[in-house]
Amino acid sequence: MKSLMKLRSNLVLAKIALTVLIISGGFLTWGGDTSRALGGPPESWVCFPTCSTVDGRFMSMAGANTSSLSGQVITVGVSAPYSPTVSEVFVDIFDGNATGQWDPMPAPSLTFELFADPLGDGTGASVPSNLVTTWSGATMPDNAWAALPSVINIPAAQQCSTCAYKYLLKISTSDVVSTGNNAFKIRTSGTIGVKAQTFAFIGAMSTLADFNAIYPTLNVPAVLGGNFTTLANTNYDGSWEFSFYPGASPPSISGTATSTLGTATV
Ligand SMILES: [Ca+2]
User: Fold this and answer.
1) What pTM did the predictor assign?
2) What would the CATH number be for the domain defined by 5-257?
3) How far is the CA of 163 from the centre of ligand 1 (A)?
4) How many CB atoms are located within 10 Å of the residue 27 CB?
5) pLDDT tens-digit readout, 220-244
């Protein structure tokens, strides 16, 4: 991870804004060498975009019946280093459901498919037999991490017998009518990488519970009375941080805030 280049602060967003992120050249990446033997969840997680359950920062997929980026497929690479012993990798989803907190209604339901992707370039997802497992967002808890069963690392996810295990997590929806958007986060015991693609992320706040999570010291009566002095104490300050592998070709990132509340400049 020493070669990572971090981009921060020059990505200035509105306090609450849906933003489309376009990546080309390099790719976003998070994580460390956390492969481990069987025995339960890791002591620490690698998350995208963050591990916090109260900061409002999410990836987002909008319903097809809305004037935003919608109907897209988001793909996220997950890898775990080779281990001579049997090892597993965890892939959990936060707020994978489509109701309750963080999901402006009606939000599209999501499907999460994990494919073995030995080359780490996404081609593994085109081989039907490489499908490892499928999770339905409809079965996941609201405002909580879905404690999904671990995935036992399989040879099909390796380019060679001692190579890292590489998977592709494909997030999609078949919903064609929803006008809301589904906000979610990903965490893994391995490493996360997002290759060149367009996807949306959001500073979400759609329910009173969301509001109280983001502004933990602001009580409702104060809101009704117009005393907003405690708004400064927030878990979401509008900034985002992304890390890049510089790679052979210069990475680039561009963003578009769809809200009139602010703009993204990168
Ligand atoms: Ca939710």
Assistant:
1) 0.81
2) 2.60.120.380
3) 37
4) 17
5) 565 565 555 566 688 998 888 887 7
